[in-house]
Automatic annotation (TrEMBL):
Family listed: Belongs to the DNA polymerase type-Y family.
Entry's Gene Ontology cellular component terms: cytosol
PROSITE patterns: UMUC
Keywords for the protein's UniProt record, in alphabetical order: DNA damage, DNA-directed DNA polymerase, Mutator protein, Nucleotidyltransferase, Transferase
Lineage: Bacteria, Bacillati, Bacillota, Clostridia, Halanaerobiales
Highest taxon above the source species: Bacteria
Protein name: DNA-directed DNA polymerase
């Protein structure tokens, strides 16, 4: 069975993955070599069960400690450094690295996949920087010169092949280039469990029909895969042949679909007033972020995840108003309506509040029965005071009531300390 590559994408897509990103930043900050020293980044040094968020390359090799391991698994050795996560620093460095990409490429040619990974479209860089491998080497060198950080890279004709090439070969060699001619020898021997884009559920279904490697998947007819897996079957077929028709879209246009914040509670909450206080904390946060992005939301979504002791897992409900808002009190009231309709006294472990269905903040539908101008002025003053003097400059009394998680919200990013 063969496939025609004449219509397949023929781009120069570079996939970049920062090597042990968090751990490397912490080592460089201490003036240590990120390749030779042993360091683990954890969420909380005081908790023995704290999850390892990142491990340096040397720590992985010598002690077998990886991301997802626990703090108590790390041997008590003098050479091993335990660092608490500093998410704000990692975000700042990630933005600086994106600026390096932007010095070689326009923003529309940069697709940020995560804090430490990106795809870059190198088409058109040949005249200024050289061929794709030469350009990749220059980007790699610039990152090292500016921040002493290493990265793994791979170039391929499309996003999927670039990502898999980086995972399989680029992480070992630092930089590689795959083409469609490499599919048979390099892509087909890969196990499904090693292939990006194939989840564990899909893998089990494929294993059940005798498919364990990409080469075996490629031998199945397209019609059979589409019938068995639907639209995912189409993707599986073409990926097995190294083809991906996805277009690399830059993130320079920040078309936000939603703004949300969730918090995992340190204990189970089933006191209604405490739950309301947490929702108020979250309403304050998402409203502030909406104002910062010059947005107003019509849709408010409340999600509660219950304790493992409960039979039900939780609920997620939303409501939409005709009038868009970025006032915390409006968002809070809407969330309380959802809470009242759906909460029945269960123990709650996680609460998430999300805004969506946005309109630009410059457009406002007038409220005939309220004083929007006064509320806008109050928000402007509070936002300015917080920016100048910190989170505790001015806040509502509810933020210090029992159950409040304001301090945790103010001092964490992605659940970890800033």
């Amino acid at each position: 069975m063969k496939i025609d590559y004449s219509d397949a994408p023929k781009n120069n897509i570079l996939c970049v993955d920062m090597k042990a990103f968090y751990a490397s930043i912490e080592l460089v900050k201490r003036g240590l070599n990120p390749l030779e020293n042993h360091l683990a980044v954890v969420g909380d040094k005081k908790r023995k069960g704290s999850v390892i968020l990142a491990a340096s390359t040397a720590l992985k090799k010598k002690y077998g400690i990886h991301t997802g391991s626990r703090l108590f698994e790390i041997p008590k050795k003098d050479e091993i450094i335990i660092a608490e996560a500093n998410m704000q620093l990692y975000l700042d460095i990630s933005m600086k690295i994106t600026e390096i990409y932007n010095s070689f490429l326009p923003l529309e040619a940069i697709h940020i996949y995560s804090i430490d990974e990106a795809w870059l479209n190198l088409n058109g860089t040949e005249k200024k920087f050289g061929d794709s491998l030469t350009t990749a080497k220059k980007i790699k060198q610039k990152i090292w010169d500016d921040y002493s950080l290493l990265c793994s890279m791979a170039v391929a004709p499309n996003m999927f092949l670039a990502k898999v090439a980086m995972d399989i070969e680029g992480k070992k060699t630092g930089l590689c280039k795959w083409d469609y001619s490499d599919v048979k020898d390099k892509l087909w021997p890969i196990k499904l469990s090693q292939c990006w884009g194939i989840g564990s559920k899909t893998e089990k279904k494929l294993n059940a029909i005798g498919v364990f490697k990409l080469g075996e998947l490629a031998k199945l007819p397209l019609s059979y895969l589409e019938k068995k897996f639907g639209i995912i079957g189409n993707q599986l077929y073409y990926h097995a042949w190294g083809i991906d028709y996805s277009k690399l879209e830059g993130h320079y246009q920040d078309h936000r679909h939603n703004i949300g914040r969730g918090i995992t509670l340190l204990r189970d909450y089933n006191d209604l007033e405490e739950i309301k206080t947490v929702i108020f904390n979250l309403a304050e946060e998402v409203a502030k972020r909406a104002r910062h992005n010059n947005l107003r939301a019509k849709t408010i979504k409340l999600s509660l995840s219950f304790s493992y002791q409960e039979v039900k897992k939780g609920f997620s409900r939303q409501l939409t108003h005709k009038r868009a808002t970025n006032f915390s009190q409006d968002i809070f009231r809407a969330a309380l309506v959802l809470l009242q309709k759906n909460y029945q006294g269960e123990k709650v472990r996680k609460i998430t509040l999300t805004l969506g269905n946005f309109s630009n903040n410059n457009y406002r539908q007038l409220n005939l029965f309220g004083n929007d101008d006064r509320q806008i002025k109050i928000n402007e003053i509070r936002d300015k005071l917080e920016k100048q003097f910190g989170h505790d400059a001015l806040f509502y009394a509810r933020n210090i009531q029992k159950g409040s998680i304001k301090a945790k919200i103010d001092n964490t990013i992605g659940g970890h300390k800033k």
